[in-house]
Design a protein that fits this description.
Low-confidence stretches: none
Bound molecules: guanosine-5'-diphosphate, magnesium ion
Number of helices: 14
Number of domains: 3
Order of helices and strands: EHEHEEHEHHHEHEHHHEEHHEHHEE
Mean pLDDT: 93
Oligomer: single chain
């Protein structure tokens, strides 16, 4: 699963990418190539499980991030080419994190609402182009053969066109299973989950108008200061703790941003615990127990018998696995059990 970081040039995309992945790319450069790196998904529940079970290893889930070259508005043909390139990279990822500059930083007065609207417009126009091409092709088919191959397509694409012409993203539209199937191959940009990341001057708030525009477009919204996150990432754990305590916050805003992105991918985490390893695993929200078992190993899915399931909150409330068992908090679940975020699983299987 990949998350693409998009936005206008010099908004802090690469700074964020570096903090999330540790990639160490130069910032302030406005490069032209995308960069890909893996970033772990911080989860304090896993840290607590590690404290409880004291395993040899602690393994977080991770997702892939793509630092996509910046987008520049209205700079002639070279700019148009660049804009297209950024859209191409955007199509390949599963979710988009749009970074919005709210700091000055010597780049001129920030225009968060303007930047958000411009980029949203660019995405909508790119999708509209595809929709119109498709509608044109369908009209030609109809003229030539008297009908279209799939009569469900024209009304769907007309609905898409109306939505995009109204300046609204496709992610807003209710789609049935057929429509999901028919449209998925087009990789529409405005159908992808979006996280709006307001990159602030330290200590300032995100502007309400831009925040509202992002929320209205169905995006998840996060505010942070990328350069402060960059400094935090260089501190020792106890220094970080002290710093956060001073601010009266539980964890770095970056963690919230990463988890919002993880949620946007429609992923939840379940855990496995033991003396060797405490580990978080990613699974699609709504997945049944055998599917989750398959994330660990295909044998566990093939030979799935049952899952021993303990809710994270129950385990913490009871204080140990044996206490949870004694309190009947360890349940035996079958193939039709829908795995919940934070479940601790032990799979029983036979192959
Ligand atoms: N003041 C301030 N500067 C920032 C912040 N985030 C990034 N920058 C600076 O803005 C410049 C551009 O950052 P970069 O990450 O390369 O932006 P990109 O072009 O979007 O990848 C760099 O000099 C960063 O140090 C921030 O939150 N506050
Ligand atoms: Mg960059």
């Amino acid at each position: 699963m990949q998350i693409g970081i998009i936005g206008v040039k010099f908004t802090g995309k690469t700074t964020l990418f570096n903090v999330i992945t540790g990639a160490g790319l130069p910032t302030g450069q406005g490069g032209v190539d995308p960069h890909l790196a893996v970033g772990k998904v911080p989860d304090s529940r896993l840290n607590k499980l590690t404290e409880m079970f004291n395993p040899k290893r602690e393994i977080h889930t991770s997702v892939e991030w793509v630092d996509i070259p910046g987008f520049q508005v209205g700079v002639g043909t070279a700019g148009a080419r660049e804009a297209t390139r950024f859209l191409e990279h955007g199509r390949k990822v599963d979710a988009l994190a749009q970074v919005i500059r709210c700091f000055d930083g010597g780049f001129g007065t920030a225009d968060p609402l303007g930047d958000f609207e411009n980029l949203s417009m660019e995405l909508a126009l790119a999708d509209l182009q595809i929709v119109e091409n498709r509608l044109e092709k369908l009209t030609k088919d109809k003229d030539r053969m008297g009908k279209v191959a799939n009569p469900l397509e024209p009304p769907m694409f007309e609905r898409f066109r109306d939505q995009l012409e109204a300046g609204k993203p496709l992610r807003d539209l209710e789609m049935n299973v057929d429509e999901e199937k028919m449209s998925s191959g087009y990789a529409f940009l405005t159908a992808k989950p979006m996280i709006a990341v307001f990159n602030l001057e330290e200590g300032e708030d995100a502007p309400a108008d831009a925040m509202k525009a992002a929320l209205d477009s169905g995006a998840e919204v996060v505010s942070l200061c990328a350069t402060m996150e960059e400094e935090l990432a260089e501190l020792e754990p106890d220094e970080v703790r002290e710093f956060l305590d001073d601010l009266g916050i539980e964890e770095p805003a970056m963690n919230l941003m990463i988890r919002a992105s993880y949620r946007a991918l429609n992923l939840i985490s379940f855990f496995t615990v033991g003396p060797d390893e405490c580990r978080a695993w990613p699974v699609r929200k709504g997945a049944m127990a055998p599917m989750a078992a398959g994330v660990i190993h295909s044998d566990l899915q093939r030979g799935f018998i049952r899952a021993e399931v303990t809710a994270y909150a129950d385990l913490m409330a009871e204080g140990s696995m044996s206490a949870a068992k004694a309190a009947n908090k360890v349940r035996l679940e079958g193939k039709a059990y829908e795995v919940q975020d934070g479940d601790i699983l032990e799979i029983r299987f036979s192959v």
